[in-house]
Predict the structure.
Amino acid sequence: MAAALEVSNLSVARGGVPVLSDVSFTLAPGEALVLRGPNGAGKTTLLRCIAGLQPALAGRIDGAEDRIAYAAHADGLKAMLTVRENLRFWAQVFGQSDISPALEGYALRDLADRLAGTLSAGQKRRLGLARLLVTGRPIWVLDEPTVSLDAEAVALFGAVLRGHLGAGGAAVMATHIDLGLEARTLDIRAYRAAEDADFGASDAVFL
Amino acid sequence: MTALLLRDLRLALRAGGGFGLGLAFFLIVTMLVPFSVGPEAALLQAIAPGVLWLGALLACLLSLDRLLALDLEDGSLELLLTAPLPLEGALAVKALAHWLTTGLPLVLAAPFLGVMLQLAAPGHLWLLTSLALGTPALSVIGMFGAALTVGIKRGGLLLSLLVLPLYIPTLIFGAEVARRGSAGLDPSTPLLMLAGLTLAVVALMPFAAATVLRIGLR
């Protein structure tokens, strides 16, 4: 089967400074890739680039167009809307209508009519991750998805993720927690950009 | 798109959404004018169109910094960028929601405030028309300003400084329509200019706003 996502010779920069260069990997349907590396290594920058939130300095990303569901530190929730309203809004934006798998998958059914602003940090995170299920997108790009989740919620997330992969989806994530699933690991320290790499340094001038 | 419009309207109407803030500001500013310039009917009548237009413009300005900043804070702006909606369309819809919750109430309240400022009888109609035609331009230009300043902490003042000069043409023609209307002159030339101006910014500004937002969020 063709690769779900193909990243070739990708170079990315943060704040005009190149952080990673020549990153290449392919992701088959049903496969998960875990990015590892110390703080500041460029995990978030790489994920933002794959999600299309910032341009790459060089290289190409194939298969990402309109197939990525992105989840980062901010969950994109409105405090004054209920859990159900938040999920329904994102479902409609992505052209979906069924939010019950998302409510079930993260045990949010009992919280459905609570305002998102009154949820605990872990509950908000669960709602933020549940949003991925209502996008209907095959490739999940996750930046530290398990922050503020307890062991039980991490298990829920692991189960949902396995279901997603089992259905032919794919995932790229930056995480330090073992989710109990078969996942390839990519240590991005190997791709650190050389200190004197100056391509893209002129980027700031044209902003 | 409809979902985004409904969400923004719902958020504006819920507690802390800021609906009515602009309207209350407009009411108070207009009420203060007779106190500051004196109750002389002829004077008030002469300045009424200008005062009402200026009040509406400032009231509109008041809510602009919430337009995108809240969505940036909770991350929904970035998620919208990855959504299948074109950003241009999403911003146009958000500007529409802003107009419905801020501009429209001002338009509807203005004739009643005109009474307080001794605005002559046919003038009400022209004031209403000019505001109805002009305030959508204020919202979309404001959206552009909000997109420019979205990444800046406490960018509210900068936003005002950037947006106010862009409001000048709308203010000139809008107030002129209202003035001519209340003085019994033919207001059609400024009216056409105002309508043309609004149509042009409504057509172009969402593209400009989306472009600067894409650059700003990198």
Notes: The mean pLDDT of chain B is 89. Residues 2-216 of chain B form one domain.
